[in-house]
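Sync notes, pocket subgroup
Present: LS, DG
LS reminded everyone that the earlier model was apo-only. Rerun requested with pyridoxal-5'-phosphate included. Inputs:
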Amino acid sequence: MKKPNKTDTLLQHGDALPGDDSSVAPPIHPSVTFSAVDAADFADMAGRPMHARYYTRYGNPTLERTAKLVAALEGGEAGLLTASGMGAISAVLIGLLRAGDHVVAQKNHYLGTTRLLSELLPRYGVRATLVDQTRIDAFEAAIEPSTRLMMIETPVNPTLALTDIAAVCALARARGLLTVADNTFASPINQRPLALGVDVVVHSATKYLGGHHDLTAGAIVGSAATIGRVWETAIVLGSVLAPHDAWLLLRGMRTLAVRVERVNASAARIAAFLDAHPGVACVHYPGLTSHPQHALAVRQMRGFGGVMALQVKGGYREAERVMSRLSLFTQAVSLGGVESLAAHAAAMWAGTLSDDALREAGIEPNLIRLSVGLEDVDDLIADLDQALGA
Ligand SMILES: *Cc1c(COP(=O)(O)O)cnc(C)c1O
């Protein structure tokens, strides 16, 4: 039989390793170290890149198995897990860049990524130019002779602006630049950046891949050669996912497709409801025809995900009032899990970003980010309706 590669089948069977025992559910390998047969075997284990059965920071069968499934889903040759999404992003950028290199990235990124690019990497001689992600000409204009890499994130947090993945990759390929895409918001169910030309995909597996708000993890997918290079750095940086959490991630991923398909459907209904609500000034959701990049969304995404942002009519106080009335949407950061969450973005980042930085990032005082979970969609709509008021 041909190797099955349909997503739903991959999610149940894409992680099996040769030589696995007969248990149907995957085993957990908590062991930190693995025995060698003799001295030659031991030397061979130490020297071989990405050897899964040497020492857990280098590799572990449970981590290997889960990484294999993420790689299969993204359509990549190899995968690597880290202890968080930031662990993945920092291992990729530190692993692939050196002093003197220049990066083109977005003005809006996950805040940790922005800080890595604009505060930490410059200390080691790596510079970044941050551009408006909706303008492909801005990416092109920012390219310098020392540019090595382009970093994108689409849809982006929290404004749900998109980056044209294929267009950025065409620019990069013509100049021999690497491309890295943060695919956390879309998940591989809704978007496959590697198929559009991206070299490396990164995830905060804390979000949709894990899917239950109960583990922190990161994932990296790319060619075997690129992942091997990143691995050389990752083992030194030391962001190792615990085998128990890798197992929990694998367990969460079994239902990834059904979860994401459900939140795609619920979010579409909620976005349409909010768009028509008199208490809402505007809704940011790539699935709405009113999203300024809806045509691009249709081109590069198969579904539009469970995250959206709304701007209530009024300012900070109005948003605060709506937040305080929500009962099914829990007021919390993070996203992508089974419980619906709401975050008042300006309040969430008040301690970290200045008012100017907030405005620059498109975070208006009246903006609320929603992560739609698996509750009944009519209950979620009723909750939003009562919170928004008559
Ligand atoms: C949460 C998030 C991250 C960081 O992931 P952690 O697992 O919290 O380290 C990176 N990128 C995006 C888009 C995220 O939402």
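DG: The chain has two domains: 7-253, 256-389.
LS: The CA atoms of residues 328 and 369 lie 14 Å apart.
Action: DG to write up.
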